[in-house]
Design a protein that fits this description.
Elements: H1 2-14, E1 18-34, E2 38-53, E3 57-67, E4 70-81, E5 84-91, E6 96-104, E7 110-119, H2 120-124, H3 129-132, E8 138-152
Antiparallel strand pairs: 1-2, 1-8, 2-3, 3-4, 4-5, 5-6, 6-7, 7-8
Length: 157
């Protein structure tokens, strides 16, 4: 896990000059498939920062409150193409890897988010005691969200 985070930071360091940087609030609702074969709802409210470089590489990092886990966060890298940002990354708690699609609106003040996540528990083999608790007993997770941009350091207003 530390190696993945370090790799992401080194990769972003190569493209460190941001063309756009903005802070946002995000609300997500989703459903998690739990080990015992049932689905469990959840939601989160996050604050984060997004950096977009001149070559359209993206770094997205967020932290916030969540139910039922109480806290959550995520960090990912991706790319921007027209009105879409595609990001892949990790959520340290509950431990998941994710892929996220962000649909940007024309006015750039808000966007819609769709994500699919696979837990560290299921990727390392179900029943691995070290990852069950860290994954909050989740196998996979799908969410839909709405993001409000609060402000921009560069291009977005």
């Amino acid at each position: 896990m530390k190696a993945i985070i370090l790799s992401i930071l080194i990769f972003i360091g190569i493209e460190c000059e941001a063309q756009e940087q903005f802070t946002s609030l995000e609300w997500n609702a989703g459903v998690s498939y739990v080990d015992d074969g049932f689905y469990f709802p959840g939601c989160s409210y996050l604050i984060g920062t997004t950096y977009i470089t001149k070559s359209n590489l993206v770094l997205d990092a967020q932290i916030g409150l969540a139910l039922p886990t109480l806290v959550t966060g995520k960090v990912g890298v991706g790319f921007k193409a027209k009105n879409v940002i595609i990001t892949a990354g990790i959520r340290p708690y509950p431990s998941h890897a994710y892929i996220q699609l962000q649909r940007l609106s024309n006015n750039k003040h808000h966007s819609f988010i769709f994500s699919f996540e696979e837990s560290a528990d299921s990727m390392t083999g179900n029943g691995n005691y070290n990852w069950q608790g860290r994954s909050f007993y989740s196998i996979r997770l799908a969410t839909v969200g709405y993001r409000w941009n609060l402000g921009s350091k560069f291009g977005r207003k």
